[in-house]
Amino acid sequence: MRPEIVLFGDSITEQSFRSGGWGAALADTYSRKADVKVRGYGGYNTRWALFLMQHLFPLDSKKPPAAATIFFGANDAAILGRTSERQHVPVEEYKENLRKIVLHMKECSPAILIVLITPPPVDEDGRNEYARSLYGEDAREEPERMNEVTGIYAKKCIELAEEMGLRSINLWSKLQETEGWQKKFLSDGLHLTPEGNAVVHQEVVRDFREAWFSAEEMPYDFPHHSNIDEKNPEKAFQQRCA
Amino acid sequence: MRPEIVLFGDSITEQSFRSGGWGAALADTYSRKADVKVRGYGGYNTRWALFLMQHLFPLDSKKPPAAATIFFGANDAAILGRTSERQHVPVEEYKENLRKIVLHMKECSPAILIVLITPPPVDEDGRNEYARSLYGEDAREEPERMNEVTGIYAKKCIELAEEMGLRSINLWSKLQETEGWQKKFLSDGLHLTPEGNAVVHQEVVRDFREAWFSAEEMPYDFPHHSNIDEKNPEKAFQQRCA
């Protein structure tokens, strides 16, 4: 009955139902109007995400999603030769993988509304602090992700959105507009604080609204309690649920 | 692929995806293992909830829910002759309505795990303060809900759970075990603070775990990223997704 919104991405999507998370906030915004389904896979890059497509978005689905966010790149942009190099995907392949994800989703659900989200910026000091908290003196001195490199991935993501006529959120740029973004928006140099989550929530809601997938304009699935006549409750349900 | 947990109830369920909410926390606990679907209807009592059953839980569903919480009573217990009397349902009817909800769910999904949750206690001073914040001097002096009366509904809910062999959470009693529960757990004398939400989350997780619907023991839907061989990623997906 309700349309479905799928959040597809890496750990930043997987963790989006923690307290203050953007996924939970989105579920609350679309309360009684749309269902939010989380498909976040911590540590995944776009190369590994491709293996999930036919399982998560089967082409014979009777009720494909109405809207989706695609939010990868933080892992693809891991630096070769450093701690997280196994997650690295070359930037051109990242872009082509994103394209394959979009094309598959559109094949599964031709009218789907897709919003591409770039990876957030990287606070390299924050990453180093985090590594030291894990490995102490054994931590490498060089961060495994670099802000400038992630920026190249973010640019490719926006480029693809423009080529394919999709909405997009340049989170990499957006967060850096605010002074002190490093600690204000990021908890460990990479994942989002509640304030960072609030920005993602606000941007996704804006994009959905501008695409006319607006929570305010969508009907409730069942009557508001104030519209139920307590003497004849069945009336309200006959009208809406026939 | 993933089993589904449905949260069925009134506003306390509807609001469970706000920051610090028990629904969002449950979605996070079952991350990558089960989907949480919110079916919370603010202001609804069990009489009105019955009109939703065939729509929300169609008997011919191919993928009925694996587990559910049923969390009503806060509105049923509204006092006759006071502000919210239109929501009132007599306590015996409340119990029978709950029974009908359970029986329908079991018909839809014979193996379903059901946890009944009683309404939380009522802080009458908190309700009066809330009424004054809405209506100023026009607010009635008598609270529209009374803790003692809600306690009778809670007792009926537990009674039904025992009769039907269901798990239950006596939230009405549980919250009152803590000194200062009125402000600690309730925001307006009726709805939950983040601390109150945390108690519901903890109790639901415990009940689910004891019924062997334990997040810790359930497999991930797809491999953890550390189990993906970056040279042969397809291997990890062949094993798990065949």
CATH topology name of chain A: Rossmann fold
Strand arrangement, largest sheet of chain A?
A: 2-1-3-4-5
Strand composition percent of chain A: 5-15%
What's the gyration radius of chain A in Å?
Answer: 20 Å
Distance between the termini of chain A: 12 Å
Find the biggest chain interface. A-B, 42 and 42 residues
What is the percent of helical residues of chain A? 40-55%
Structure overview:
The structure is a homodimer of 242-residue chains. Chain A is an alpha/beta fold. Chain A has a single domain (4-241), classed as SGNH hydrolase (Rossmann fold). The first copy, chain A, contains eleven helices and five strands. Chain A has a five-stranded parallel β-sheet, sandwiched between helices. In chain A, strand 3, helix 5 (91-108) and strand 4 (113-117) form a beta-alpha-beta unit. In chain A, helix 2 (22-29) packs across helix 10 and helix 5 (91-108) runs parallel beside helix 7 (147-164). The radius of gyration of chain A is 20 Å and the shape is globular. Chains A and B meet through helix 2, strand 2 and helix 11 of A and helix 2, strand 2 and helix 11 of B. Chains A, B: This is SGNH hydrolase-type esterase domain-containing protein. Chains A, B: Residues 223-234 have a biased composition (Basic and acidic residues). Chains A, B: InterPro entries: GDSL, Iah1-like, SGNH_hydro_sf.
